[in-house]
Design the sequence.
């Protein structure tokens, strides 16, 4: 056994006498054996000679040598090591896929962590006009890449404050797309405080994906998500929710976790499941307010709670019950489909974001930072040229992510988080890195468990689904 003949980067998972490993470089998930996982777990920190020494009490020497050879051959024969991560090709032109319309920069709420500064993005409060929306849609449609399925997002502030433009846009886009055979998926993120029955019926007709922002139990929610008057919003939302659920029985929620709410995270997510939300996604509050921003210690507080919720999620999936915490399950989807490294919106140039006055961005979270604008709809060039002229991300080789084992499943982190904490979109925020690495290890655990319990259902779970 030569001490230096291959480079393996894997994460192993063992449970109930079943053994798995995920090969980070190729993205292959493999059912393994005890001895193989032991060798893989010891390599490359230990040389093959040391591994032989360490395992010889447990296994016959011949078996250890054979297993090492087996790993070596397996890697050679299926090309796991030779197949490098699929990364964005530097020279391939950017392809526009999704449209993001910030149709209103105003909000009836003032959440304590709001990245949009209470809806105005540190600028004038305003609505997008129908004429402006049409112009943005036309631009997007003209520059659209060859995708079968595209997403359109209506965002704010609170999008329900500009219902007229949402209705107009859906009709207009449906007419444009109708003859092309493409599928459009409409998405709205709402604070849930406004219910308008006629409008909700229209959303239903267009099969809109509604995402509610709710932070958990009444006291946690009301301590973070308040009306402009300062009053808590929980009661209004929970009343509205029942009316929404008559039209949308499968609603999803998004929860923002702050330093203050971290100890109650599990309770909050379970409360959302009880309210009837099917899928819950969480985000850490990204803020320069020290009273709300996460520290390493706060992460440790939520890790055990996430683990518990992931186990509950597994049970619910296996027993066809509702209640899914999405974040680590989304990693399972990447593993199952072996999705390539994608990068965030600022890096992959796949979404055109428009403010109400027609200013263009690549990332909806960076709208308060004018330096990240790529132009204006009135003077917009082809998407490809606009992206080339305003490329804010360094190449992967020049970023710390290039050396990180989590690169493929993480996708290089969130540029907004990096900007808020490091004032540089190319330097990842260490707390997000720690969280994503934890979620990856959880994703591998969950995928292994699903693989053992319901192997026949994995395609149904992860192919063509929004998880
Ligand atoms: S509802 Fe959304 S836009 Fe409005 S204050 Fe809260 S986080 Fe900000
Ligand atoms: S975990 Fe951090 S360093 Fe690693 S790829 Fe993600 S953002 Fe980059």
Sequence:
């Amino acid at each position: 056994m030569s001490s230096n003949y291959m480079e393996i980067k894997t994460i192993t998972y063992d449970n109930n006498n079943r053994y798995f490993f995920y090969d980070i470089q190729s993205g292959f998930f493999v059912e393994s054996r005890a001895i193989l996982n032991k060798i893989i777990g010891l390599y490359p920190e230990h040389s093959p000679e040391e591994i032989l020494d360490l395992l010889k009490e447990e296994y016959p020497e011949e078996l250890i040598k054979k297993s090492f050879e087996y790993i070596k051959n397996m890697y050679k024969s299926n090309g796991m090591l030779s197949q490098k991560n699929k990364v964005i090709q530097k020279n391939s032109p950017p392809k526009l896929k999704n449209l993001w319309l910030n149709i209103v920069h105003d909000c009836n709420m003032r959440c304590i962590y709001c990245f949009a500064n209470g809806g105005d993005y540190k600028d004038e409060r305003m609505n997008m006009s129908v004429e402006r929306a049409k112009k943005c849609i036309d631009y997007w449609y003209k520059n659209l890449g060859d995708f079968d399925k595209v997403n359109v997002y209506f965002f704010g502030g609170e999008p329900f404050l500009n219902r007229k433009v949402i209705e107009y846009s859906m009709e207009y886009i449906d007419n444009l797309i109708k003859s092309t055979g493409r599928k459009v998926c409409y998405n709205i993120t709402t604070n849930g405080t406004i219910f308008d029955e006629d409008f909700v019926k229209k959303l239903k007709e267009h099969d809109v994906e509604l995402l509610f922002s709710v932070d958990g139990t009444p006291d946690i929610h009301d301590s973070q998500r308040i009306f402009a008057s300062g009053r808590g919003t929980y009661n209004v939302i929970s009343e509205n929710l029942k009316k929404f659920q008559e039209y949308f029985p499968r609603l999803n929620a998004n929860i923002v976790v702050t330093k203050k709410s971290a100890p109650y995270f599990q309770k909050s997510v379970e409360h959302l499941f009880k309210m009837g939300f099917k899928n819950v996604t969480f985000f850490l509050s990204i803020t320069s307010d020290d009273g709300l921003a996460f520290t390493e210690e706060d992460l440790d507080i939520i890790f055990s709670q996430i683990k518990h919720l992931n186990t509950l999620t597994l049970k619910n999936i296996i027993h066809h019950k509702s209640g899914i915490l999405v974040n680590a399950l989304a990693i399972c989807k990447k593993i199952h489909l072996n999705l390539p490294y994608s990068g965030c919106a600022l890096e992959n140039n796949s979404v055109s974001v428009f403010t109400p006055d027609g200013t263009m961005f690549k990332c909806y979270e960076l709208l308060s930072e004018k330096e990240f604008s790529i132009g204006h709809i009135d003077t917009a060039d082809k998407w490809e040229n606009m992206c080339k002229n305003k490329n804010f991300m360094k190449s992967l080789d020049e970023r710390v992510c290039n050396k990180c084992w989590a690169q493929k499943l993480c996708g290089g982190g969130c540029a907004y988080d990096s900007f808020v904490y490091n004032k540089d979109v190319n330097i990842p925020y260490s707390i997000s890195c720690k969280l994503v690495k934890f979620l990856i290890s959880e994703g591998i655990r969950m995928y292994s468990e699903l693989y053992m319990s319901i192997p026949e259902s994995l395609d149904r779970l992860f192919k063509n689904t929004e998880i």
In short: The radius of gyration is 24 Å. The CA atoms of residues 84 and 366 lie 32 Å apart.
